[in-house]
Design brief:
The structure is a homodimer. Chain A is α+β, with helices and mostly antiparallel strands. Chain A has a single domain, classed as Bit1. Helices cover 43% and strands 24% of the residues of chain A. Chain A has four helices and four strands. The first copy, chain A, starts with 5 loop residues before the first strand and ends in a 6-residue tail after the last helix. The interface between A and B is medium-sized, with 27 and 27 residues.
C-alpha cells in the first residue's frame, strides 16, 4: 500500500437478509453520498481518488449497533462519511440503517477503524 | 410510477462469478460514474434525483455481449451512462467489463430498453 493511498470503504449490514440487488443498491447509495461528503471536505483528495481508479472496498458488519458505532467513530475523526437510511419502500422497515460509506480518504486513516472487519 | 419519475439503473454481469463484495463495488463504480455523466448532461435532472431519494434499481445480464449491446443502445439514445471496466487487480482479468450505470434519467426512457431484464 502506498503511504498516501486513497480509497473508499463501504460497510454493509449482513443481518438484514437483503437480496443481492438491494444490497448492491445500498452500497451504491453509500458510495455516492460519501463521495459528496468527501468532495465538500477535501476536493483535491476526491479528485485524486477519481483520477487514480476509484479504489473501493466493501466490508461487512452484522448489526445496526456495529454500523452506528463506526459511523460515530468516523464522524469523531472528522473523516467524511455517510450513513444510508432505507426509505423502506420494498424489503425493509422505513428508517433502517443499511450501510455506511467512508471517504474517499487516506487509506491508513480509514484502516485504523476498520482493520478488524471482514470483506463482504 | 409518476410520469416524470427519475431513477438510476445499474446493470451487472452475473456470469463472472464475482463475490458479493466485488459485485457491490462494481455497482458502486457504475453508480458514481454514471451520476457524473448525468450531471454533465442535465444538471437539473441529476439534482432532482438527489433531492427525491436517489432511486436505484439493480438488474442483471448474463454476458458481456448483452452488457455491450445495452451500452451502445443507451449511447445511441443519448441517455447518460457509464460502462465499468475492471482494473483486474483481484478476481478478474484486466479490462473485463463488469457493469453499466444508466442515469439518473427519466424512468420511462430507461425502461424502454431494460424492461425485459430481471432484477439482480
Amino acid at each position: 500500500m502506498a503511504v498516501d493511498e486513497i480509497k473508499q470503504v463501504i460497510i454493509v449490514r449482513t443481518d438484514l437478509d437483503m437480496g443481492k440487488g438491494k444490497l448492491a443498491a445500498q452500497c451504491a447509495h453509500a458510495s455516492l453520498m460519501s463521495y459528496f461528503e468527501a468532495e465538500r471536505s477535501d476536493k483535491g483528495m476526491a479528485k485524486a481518488w477519481l483520477d487514480s481508479g476509484e479504489k473501493k472496498i466493501v466490508l461487512k458488519v452484522s448489526s445496526e449497533e456495529a454500523l452506528l458505532k463506526l459511523f460515530a467513530a468516523f464522524q469523531f475523526k472528522k473523516i467524511p462519511c455517510a450513513l444510508v437510511t432505507d426509505a423502506g419502500l420494498t424489503e425493509l422497515p422505513p428508517g433502517t440503517k443499511t450501510a455506511l460509506g467512508i471517504g474517499p480518504w487516506l487509506a491508513k486513516e480509514i484502516d485504523l477503524l476498520t482493520i478488524s472487519l471482514p470483506l463482504l
